[in-house]
Design a protein that fits this description.
The protein has about 240 residues and is an alpha/beta fold. Helices cover about 45% and strands about 15% of the residues.
Length: about 240
């Protein structure tokens, strides 16, 4: 594996108006984030022209030195991946810990202003779809300064909501259709519609393949779906 550093950037930093930091996990490379931002600052005589996007799993906080630099920028999106509520998020994310991710989300949410814009991206799969209404309510009510985007997982197909067993799919569909948001946000209808649309798409794998995938996840992670998400386990294996 090769670690990229600020010295590897073959660009004129004085001409750079937008930069996106992705991973791996970018919070493990914060010395290089600082070096890049300081390099742009030196080349341009400030950061007030710069737009920055940082995507993180939320397990480590950005250091204060990084925050101080970001707060000088024209626009900043700090994006955390949060896919479900406690058990479903942690199972989907494997080594993710809900309490630590939410603590990070609250920290960035408290910094929100017109230029520093924290956000939550949620990838909805068969593992997390039952939590989608509660998750949307949580972000809206508990992270009022953060924007929220929901995407349906398309790959691997075995984890897509379109390939859920029909009885479970109908149960989730009824939950989504009857859900009344705690706070009315226009985009909730868009996200709900997106999930329902993907649920209605034609199935493109069979239950045997799905069960095999779920068992492989258990083996890889050293935990069991039956213990973590017993209702989902029953839907697939009973």
């Amino acid at each position: 594996m090769v670690r990229r550093t600020a010295a590897d950037l073959n660009v004129d930093l004085a001409q750079l108006d937008r930069i996106k930091f992705i991973g791996g996990e970018i919070t493990l490379e914060q010395d290089e984030v600082i070096a890049v931002l300081q390099g742009i600052d030196l080349a341009r005589g400030g950061l007030s022209h710069l737009s920055v996007e940082i995507i993180t799993n939320g397990m480590l906080l950005l250091q204060q030195e990084v925050i101080d630099l970001l707060l000088q920028c024209r626009h900043v999106d700090v994006v955390i991946s949060l896919d479900g509520m406690q058990a479903s998020n942690d199972y989907q994310r494997s080594e993710g810990k809900w309490s630590e991710i939410v603590a990070a989300a609250r920290y960035y949410d408290a910094l929100a202003n017109g230029r520093f814009c924290p956000g939550i991206i949620s990838t909805i799969s068969c593992l997390t779809v039952a939590d989608a209404p509660e998750l949307m309510d949580f972000v809206t009510c508990e992270l009022p300064g953060s924007w929220h985007v929901i995407n349906a997982l398309l790959w691997p197909a075995e984890l897509s909501v379109r390939n859920m067993p029909d009885p479970y799919k109908q149960q989730i569909k009824q939950q989504l259709e009857s859900w009344i948001p705690r706070l009315d946000k226009s985009r909730h209808q868009e996200w709900r519609g997106r999930i329902l649309q993907d649920m209605a798409a034609p199935q493109d794998t069979d239950i045997v393949s799905v069960r095999k995938m779920l068992q492989e996840l258990d083996d890889l992670r050293g935990e069991t779906l039956q213990q973590c998400l017993p209702d989902l386990y029953s839907a697939y294996f009973s």
